[in-house]
Amino acid sequence: MKDLKYQFYIAGTPEEVWKALISPEGTKQIYYGSVIKSTFQVGDLLEYVGPGVDGAETVHVYGKVLEYKPTQLLRFTHYPGKSYVKDNNSFESRITYILEPSGSCTKLTLIHDQWKEGDSTYENSDKAWWMILSNTKTLVETGSTLDFGEGS
Hints:
Blueprint: E1 4-10, H1 14-22, H2 24-30, E2 35-38, E3 45-52, E4 55-69, E5 73-80, E6 93-102, E7 105-113, H3 122-142
Antiparallel strand pairs: 1-7, 2-3, 3-4, 4-5, 5-6, 6-7
Helix pairs in contact: 1-2, 1-3
Organism: Lysinibacillus pakistanensis
Protein name: Polyketide cyclase
Family: Belongs to the AHA1 family.
């Protein structure tokens, strides 16, 4: 399967973009009410938890932290939550956020790679990343997120 790779230039500092991607205040807005739960120590669990099919504490995605450099890099393994895919452990992939200063902007690169053949979450991930990254850019630049007309 082809790697998913996206690059966005955001009118904000790496610290502002990082806050949107990592902090509970930011993630709740860009990930539809979910927050990241993790110590961010290499090898520790990372979970995106929020409202969903299993209630307020639905685990949408989880994995292990592979690398963590505040305001620069977050890399972790990615598994779909158990409520989405029965045999979720067979569908491991990897997500990498890279933040780089670019003039007065931040270049945000997201790479979702190491897909396993037959991963049923691939197409939905490709669609969702465009929305999540657009929300990230809009949140940093305007203080609010986009209304995609879903779930309302």
